[in-house]
Specification:
The protein has 428 residues and is an alpha/beta fold. It is built from 16 helices and 14 strands. It has helices spanning 10-18, 26-36, 51-65, 80-93, 110-122, 131-139, 156-161, 165-172, 190-199, 226-237, 253-265, 279-291, 324-331, 352-362, 373-376, 407-414; strands spanning 41-45, 73-76, 101-104, 126-129, 150-153, 180-185, 204-208, 217-223, 246-249, 270-273, 296-299, 314-317, 341-347, 367-368. β12 (314-317), α13 (324-331) and β13 (341-347) form a beta-alpha-beta unit. The longest helix is centred in the N-terminal third of the chain and has 15 residues, at 51-65.
Length: 428
């Protein structure tokens, strides 16, 4: 379906034409008509499907058609990076309109707080914000929410994971019930549905390509002990001229910083991005990664969602994420916009079970790659006289150590039920 068929304002169509956008993606094709009609929506779509434009275009259309004083739209996102990206897309799509907007997020100097205060009090048409920073302005009396007609929760599952549900509800309770609410999420577990019931009125539901990596991602896994992961990473990355942009994920901020330091010491041009850095540092490194002057970035999962960096050749999972959905989002950073890419995962002995869950979720069997000869001694978790868990029998693919059929499913059933995501503590 073409954008010209949605009935969008001419100024938006002019902007779309200038940016070379003609055909809508599936999430846009299904969502835009509902949003143009003023319906609430509960939408599930993984990263890279165009969901940001799916809600931005109807919002800009409504504002262009009936602009009124005060804040018209509030968009909440879990991270500074996502807020910045949404703000950039808003600027592009609204270029030929008379719409003003402000991005509200922390990690900058005190002057930015003053700028945000002025824009909020003046009543910017669209506010894109992280919940914590927006709450700070709300508590200071800098925001009047009585005029808000549209509320967007982007990456809602991530916001619940980070413990932002109380902040979101505090914001929502200051708004009129007579508003249009849009909840976009990359996953749709039961706790997201319960949360949505509190916010949405008779919503339309849209679900696109849940938990399936792009077909043009070449997925490879190495079974390797922790002690050899760094050497294997150096072996894979050193001297590879075809790898212009590499994104490495590690599970903790401490590991991210340490891994970046050690890879840099080994002669690779690499920087770390995590939430302990100043916002200016994160922006500078992300910009360098985007423009190609920084070829390798090591990051926490703060970059696994919502960050659109084109041309990432390789995503390297230095460790296996505990949540299978995070794996999908991590490797979804490559092979964007129909390009191809490679995703490599290091699996140590204790991560086999988590990786089994990933393969079950995606419905794919990831090819295991043999370790290079120079790393095999004492590096592989296979063929060392031990099975995957106990050290007895052979490793995966070596005879012995394979679990009886159905055992993994039974183990999953015996695990304790996870608490609702909004009861977790903020992390990033």
């Amino acid at each position: 379906m073409k954008f010209s068929e949605f009935g969008l304002d001419d100024s938006l169509l002019e902007g779309l034409e200038a940016m070379g956008f003609e055909d809508a993606t599936p999430i846009q094709e299904q969502s835009i008509p509902f949003l143009m009609a003023g319906k609430d929506i509960l939408a599930c779509a993984q990263t890279g499907t165009g969901k940001t434009a799916a809600y931005i275009l109807p919002l800009l259309h409504h504002i262009t058609q009936s602009k009124s004083p005060g804040i018209d739209t509030l968009i909440l996102g879990p991270t500074r990076e996502l807020v910045m990206q949404v703000d950039q897309q808003l600027e592009g799509f609204s270029y030929f309109t008379n719409t003003n907007m402000i991005a509200v997020y922390g990690g900058r100097d005190g002057h930015s707080m003053d700028q945000e205060k002025k824009a909020l009090k003046a009543g910017a048409d669209i506010v894109v914000a992280t919940p914590g920073r927006f709450i700070a302005h709300l508590d200071l009396g800098n925001v009047d929410l009585s005029t808000v007609k549209h509320l967007v929760l982007d990456e809602a599952d991530r916001m619940l994971d980070m413990g932002f549900a109380p902040d979101i509800m505090k914001i929502v309770h200051r708004m009129s019930r007579d508003r249009q609410t849009m909840l976009f999420s990359a996953t749709m577990p039961s706790d997201i549905r319960r949360f949505a019931k509190e916010l949405l009125r008779d919503p339309e539901e849209v679900s696109i390509a849940i938990s399936k990596p792009a077909e043009n991602i070449i997925q490879i896994a190495y079974e390797v002990e922790d002690i050899a992961k760094l050497k294997l990473a150096e072996y894979l990355l050193t001297g590879k001229k075809n790898l212009n942009r590499v994104l490495i994920f590690a599970g903790t901020k401490k590991m991210v910083a340490e891994l970046a330091r050690r890879l840099s010491k080994g002669g690779l041009k690499v920087e770390a991005i995590h939430s302990d850095l100043l916002q200016s540092e994160r922006e500078e490194r992300l910009l360098a990664f985007r423009n190609g002057t920084l070829p390798i970035v090591v990051a926490t999962d703060v970059l696994s969602r919502g960050i659109d960096v084109k041309g990432i050749d390789l995503v390297l999972n230095f460790d296996v994420p505990s949540d299978p959905e995070d794996y999908v989002h991590r490797i979804g950073r490559t092979a964007r916009a129909e390009a191809s890419g490679i995703a490599i995962t290091f699996i140590n002995r204790k991560d086999f079970r988590n990786f089994d869950r990933i393969e079950a979720l995606t419905g794919m069997k990831v090819r295991r790659q043999e370790l290079p000869e120079i790393l095999k001694s004492g590096a592989s978790v296979r063929g060392q006289g031990g099975d995957r868990e106990s050290g007895r029998g052979g490793g995966r693919g070596q005879g012995g150590g394979s679990r009886p059929q159905g055992q993994g499913q039974q183990e999953g059933q015996n695990k304790r039920k996870r608490p609702p995501r909004w009861k977790k503590k903020k992390t990033e």
